[in-house]
Design a protein that fits this description.
Residues 37-50 have a biased composition (Basic and acidic residues). The chain has 184 residues and is mainly alpha-helical. The chain has helices at 2-20, 33-40, 53-71, 75-78, 81-109, 117-148, 151-167. The protein has a domain at 2-19 and 53-109 and 122-167. The chain is elongated, with a radius of gyration of 18 Å.
């Protein structure tokens, strides 16, 4: 159970880190920032709004604070929190940088042909390697904190991690309330 929940938290960070991405992806004065700001004002009936780096940073701060508050850590347990928080922030920063590079590559490619199957397979393998590294980083950072939690705190940890995964881009849990692709 313990390993499952640490893996779930790691998956949460990997899968949902788009919402966690800190303010490193694109500075406000970067080229294209005005266009990005204009996208925030568009009609969102055609799809989700792309959050600004500042928005993502604020959401990361709020989610981390909520997660920590929900655990009701003791002063002794508080000592293990910074490792997890730092890992989550670092991963969000790395993901923001990766997404910025991906967007640049997509714009450079423009109307050229889509990468062939072999290139897509290699890209997919690289992304899986990065996700595996991220999951291990989160598991290593979360383990000391998780080990220090009592039964009630572990239950809350599990529920909050699962809820964050369901709401913020992580894997969907099957069941009558939530289908495999339910984003609601």
């Amino acid at each position: 159970m313990k390993k499952t929940m640490i893996a779930a938290l790691a998956t949460l960070v990997v899968a949902g880190s788009g919402a966690f991405t800190a303010s490193y992806a694109q500075p406000a004065n970067a080229p294209g920032a005005a266009q990005q700001d204009a996208r925030h004002e568009r009609d969102h009936s055609r799809g989700p709004m792309r959050l600004s780096a500042e928005d993502r940073s604020a959401l990361l701060d709020a989610r981390l604070a909520g997660f920590k508050a929900g655990l009701k850590l003791t002063p002794e347990q508080e000592k293990a929190w910074p490792a997890l928080e730092t890992a989550m922030r670092d991963i969000a920063k790395e993901r923001g940088e990766r997404m910025a590079k991906w967007r640049e590559a997509r714009e450079e490619r423009g109307k050229k042909d889509r990468p062939d199957l072999i290139e897509r397979l290699r890209n997919g393998a690289t992304m899986m390697e990065e996700r595996a590294k991220t999951m291990k980083t989160i598991a290593d950072a979360a383990a000391p904190l998780y080990e220090s939690l009592d039964t009630a705190q572990k239950r809350r940890f599990n529920v909050m991690a699962r809820e964050m995964m369901n709401r913020h881009g992580g894997p969907r849990l099957g069941g009558p309330e939530r289908g495999m692709h339910d984003r609601g």
